[in-house]
Amino acid sequence: MAAEKATALVLRAIDFSETSVIVTLFTREFGKISGLAKGGRRLKGPFESALDLLALCRIVFLRKSSDALDLLTEAKLERRFRVSEAGLAGLNAAFYVAELLRELTHDNDPHAELFDAADRTLVVLGQSRDAGAHVTAQHVFRFELTALRLLGHMPSLDACAECGATVEAKGRVPFGHTAGGVLCAACRPGKRNVVSLSAVALGALGKMSEEDGAASGVADGVAMDIERSTRGELRGLLNHYIAHLVGHELRTQKSLSDR
Ligand SMILES: [Zn+2]
Hints:
The protein has 259 residues and is α+β, with helices and mostly antiparallel strands. The protein has helices at residues 83-104, 112-125, 133-150, 199-210, 216-219, 228-246; strands at 3-15, 21-27, 31-37, 56-62, 70-79, 172-176, 181-182, 194-198. The protein has six helices and eight strands, in the order βββββαααβββααα. The structure holds zinc ion. Zinc ion (ZN) binds at residues 160, 162-163, 165, 183-184, 186-187.
């Protein structure tokens, strides 16, 4: 059994025994893995405190066959998520990023570009205490759109999700959660799970999805001007869309409100 090395973000850590921890990690090289870290709860030892939630670390692990948990043998901390510098909104947003990765990705399915986007997003969220709710919200929106795009779930925003006809963004536009995007007037009737989205919210979504990837605009301090009501509308839309994708609401979505 060969030892593998990887760079990993800690998505979840559950105490398993007096001394051991089961961790869910999103690795750059192997995608999501779950592993047992024997001695992971000890402050001293091969893991020290590298397995804290949201930390970035370098790990060594032994891959087990199909069902069995991988075995972590070493973890070295590269970056800790500092709650004091993130503030509560930043921390909640970071928890959400972790849950999103856990729910949207499959085991052993690597997505290096998504890993890099998550890593960058956690860095900016980790410094977001004084950034303001609208900036934090935009980091989250951009990460969500990047994740949806890279995982093949990006909703259609300007062409009808059913027939491909151009859908003009004016007034309110029907958005089908099951159809996977906006709907034209001809395709709208009879569709289930359809909400009506304001053209302003749709426009903001389109703009952020064009600029996604690096979360670059916001990281450089150039946050878009999105009104609170529009942010609320987008939050509701994405909550519902993602819940529909994974089959249930995400636990951490509730704490994302920026009121
Ligand atoms: Zn159509």
